[in-house]
């Protein structure tokens, strides 16, 4: 068997035989399919990553099978990339160095629903976990809008926030990730338990420093959720209403998003349900808070277009409201036109509609704002995931500079290095744990720009760099 990636010098036939009885996939077209994620949102990442493929896929079903796969990979010095649902946007799950892809979706049991938490195998789909929780009156504190195909391990390793974050904070906030079981990639893979704040050693490391096999996450009481949409004549009014709604303690929202009217023109499934050419506010809130929502929207100068219980939504054959939030908003536009892309931009706190109004004309007609509201340290913050009509790197840099000059920090969505986006600088705690759990540096190492410069150091020396920076 030859190398599909063209980057490895491993006998992949012998490798596959050594993995038995673990299921493997070696058909090139299927291996190539599993080498991709949603990096194509970015034309820059698309150009850089579209020709990067793995060589073989393994699908372990149990922690013991996972241990076996990792021991074989270690013995062959094989580069390894973990893959859940493959819904990441930055090529996190792309095997840049070729090698083995370990797909976790066969390790998908919901193990325990406890008092305020759920424990599941890493490959469990977020939607399946919610389905197990809801009959017991609970739900996940937050989940990505990709919950139907995203795994809980992929969310912890690659995600950051989602539906629920306006109430319960980001994934990294205290109490949201309760515990992680993580296997090392060495001669005899061992299992490590990370609890409480120590889970941050592994969270958002893109699978470079250990293999998550089990996740315990916080749960919250479920409610009778109603999907709500309201429209506004001016974007800054939609944004102001979003802020008023998110901080109103009498309304228990689990989602608040706003989108420029030009983006809504790409939502054909909402035709006839929301007013045309208006700026949109999307929310999910409990049935008993709908009257207060209506009053708030009227007071903020908006118009309530839609309030639907889950049964009414199904009856009306409409998508979930969260299909118009987070990176699903971008997806709706990309479905119609692949020239669109996006960016990730922080906003000064507290949210200020006047700052948004000042910034909009500076950005130009190729940047259409879309904000998500979330809670950080108890305060409401917003971040912008604008649609950008891509015309080249130079214009993108210019757009980034306009945001930054106005005090809106850009967390670049067009880089496949873990340090390039949200992190900005190296996370030496992540890299110290990489040294401990992945001594040969086989786990998704290309994704860390800093790894090469520290891999010769001991774990303690790498960790010391964290306090020095
Ligand atoms: C339309 C759309 C909407 C989105 N909305 C959101 C959102 O609301 N919030 C959000 O945070 N993200 C969002 N994302 C990004 C992504 O969907 C989520 O982060 C999702 O949870 C990733 O899960 P996954 O199983 O697809 O992970 P994958 O893409 O398969 O993997 C993500 C990263 O985690 C690593 N990994 C996977 N499993 C393991 C494991 N068991 N151990 C160690 N490392 C592992 C992979 O190597 C990769 O680096 C969105 C993406 C799209 C395309």
Structure report:
It is a single chain. The chain is α+β, with helices and mostly antiparallel strands and 469 residues long. Among the domains are: 92 residues, Uridine Diphospho-n-acetylenolpyruvylglucosamine Reductase, domain 2, CATH 3.30.43; 181 residues, Vanillyl-alcohol Oxidase, Chain A, domain 3 (3-Layer(aba) Sandwich), CATH 3.40.462. Helix content is 32%, strand content 22%. The protein is built from 18 helices and 20 strands. It has a 7-stranded antiparallel beta sheet with strand order 14-11-13-12-18-19-16. Helix 8 packs antiparallel against helix 13. The longest helix is centred in the N-terminal third of the chain and has 13 residues. The model has no long low-confidence stretch (mean pLDDT 96). The site of flavin-adenine dinucleotide has 38 residues, from strand 3, helix 6, strand 10 and helix 12. GO terms for molecular function: D-lactate dehydrogenase (cytochrome) activity; D-lactate dehydrogenase (NAD+) activity; FAD binding. Keywords: FAD, Flavoprotein. InterPro entries: FAD-bd_PCMH (IPR016166), FAD-bd_PCMH-like_sf (IPR036318), FAD-bd_PCMH_sub2 (IPR016169), Oxid_FAD_bind_N (IPR006094). One of its GO terms (biological process) is lactate catabolic process. Pfam families: FAD_binding_4.
């Amino acid at each position: 068997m030859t190398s599909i990636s063209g980057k490895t010098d491993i006998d992949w036939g012998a490798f596959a035989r050594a993995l038995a009885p673990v299921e493997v996939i070696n058909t090139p077209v299927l291996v190539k399919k599993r080498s991709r994620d949603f990096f194509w949102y970015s034309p820059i990442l698309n150009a850089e990553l579209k020709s990067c493929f793995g060589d073989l896929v393994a699908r372990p079903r149990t922690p013991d099978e996972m241990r076996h796969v990792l021991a074989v990979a270690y013995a062959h010095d094989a580069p390894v990339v973990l893959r859940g649902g493959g819904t990441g946007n930055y090529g996190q799950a792309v095997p840049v160095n070729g090698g083995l892809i370990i797909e976790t979706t066969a390790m998908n049991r919901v193990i325990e629903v406890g008092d305020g938490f759920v424990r599941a195998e890493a490959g469990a789909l977020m939607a399946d976990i919610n389905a197990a929780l809801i009959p017991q009156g609970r739900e996940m504190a937050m989940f990505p809008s990709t919950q139907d195909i995203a795994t809980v391990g992929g969310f912890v390793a690659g995600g950051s926030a989602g539906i629920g974050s306006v109430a319960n904070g980001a994934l990294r906030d205290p109490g949201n990730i309760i515990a992680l079981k993580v296997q090392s990639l060495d001669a005899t893979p061992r299992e490590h338990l990370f609890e409480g704040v120590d889970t941050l050693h592994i969270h958002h490391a893109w699978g470079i420093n250990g293999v998550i096999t089990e996740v315990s996450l916080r749960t919250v009481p479920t409610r009778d959720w109603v999907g709500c949409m309201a429209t506004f004549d001016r974007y800054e009014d939609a944004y102001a209403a979003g802020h008023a709604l998110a901080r109103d303690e009498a309304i228990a929202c689990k989602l608040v998003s706003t989108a420029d009217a030009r983006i809504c023109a790409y939502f054909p499934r909402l035709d006839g349900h929301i007013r045309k050419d208006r700026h949109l506010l999307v929310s999910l809130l409990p049935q008993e808070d709908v009257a207060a929502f209506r009053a708030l929207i009227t007071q903020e100068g908006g118009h309530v277009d839609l309030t639907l219980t889950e049964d009414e939504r199904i009856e009306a054959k409409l998508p979930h409201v969260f299909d118009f939030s987070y990176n699903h908003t971008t997806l709706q536009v990309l479905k119609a036109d692949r020239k669109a892309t996006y960016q990730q931009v922080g906003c000064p706190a507290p949210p200020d509609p006047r700052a948004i109004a000042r910034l909009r004309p500076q950005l130009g007609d190729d940047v259409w704002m879309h904000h998500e509201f979330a809670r950080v340290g108890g305060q409401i913050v917003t971040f912008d995931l604008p649609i950008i009509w891509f015309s080249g790197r130079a214009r993108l840099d210019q757009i980034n500079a306009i945001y930054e000059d106005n005090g809106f920090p850009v967390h670049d969505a067009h880089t496949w290095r873990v340090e390039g986006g949200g992190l900005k600088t190296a996370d030496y705690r992540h890299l110290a744990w990489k040294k401990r759990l992945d001594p040969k540096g086989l786990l998704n190492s290309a994704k860390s720009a800093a790894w090469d410069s520290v891999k010769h150091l001991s774990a303690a020396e790498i960790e010391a760099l964290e306090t020095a920076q």
